[in-house]
Design a protein that fits this description.
Elements (H helix, E strand, L loop, with lengths): L3 H23 L40 H11 L3 H27 L8 H10 L1 H11 L12
Helix pairs in contact: 1-3, 2-3, 3-5, 4-5
Length: 149
């Protein structure tokens, strides 16, 4: 049965995305949420975050992407390019989201708060992979197809 491998892989990807979304919704930092305070808190990771323009609401601070994390994203997208072409833009876009969201969670990157990070990383680290993904997914950029799970 030639499609059984694809079905199994798709089921696994959907399960992984569901688990990632569930963990994100529940908070997986292991630290209790502050209560009874309206002030801001500072974490040890504050030095690893970029600053966004205050008051504009256009971009949330996000952790800087390391070279290793950038390579990881490129390495995750590269083998899926043929699947994006075969599946078409609709299913391929779902597939890209199923790659990007777990990558962001694993690396502490707020993909939904800064969707452009996907384009920024891929332009710098694997422009060929990015261009092939854009063509296969029929989109002007990768950020525009990132959605919340």
């Amino acid at each position: 049965m030639p499609h059984s491998r694809w079905i199994s892989r798709s089921t696994s990807l959907v399960a992984a995305a569901f688990a990632a979304a569930t963990l994100a919704a529940c908070g997986t930092t292991g630290q209790p949420e502050p209560t009874g305070s309206t002030g801001s808190t500072t974490s040890a990771n504050a030095s690893a975050t970029t600053t966004a323009a205050q008051g504009t609401g256009t971009q949330k601070p996000t952790k800087e992407v390391t070279d290793a994390a950038a390579k990881q994203l490129c390495d995750a997208i590269r083998p899926e390019l043929s699947n994006f072409r075969v599946q078409g833009p609709t299913l391929g876009r779902v597939g890209l989201n199923l790659i990007v969201h777990p990558w962001g969670l694993q690396n502490g990157i707020d993909v939904l708060g800064n969707k452009a990070v996907v384009d920024t990383v891929t332009v710098k680290s694997c422009p060929d992979v990015r261009q092939q993904a854009i063509e296969a997914l029929a989109t002007p950029d990768l950020a525009s197809i990132i959605v919340g799970l």
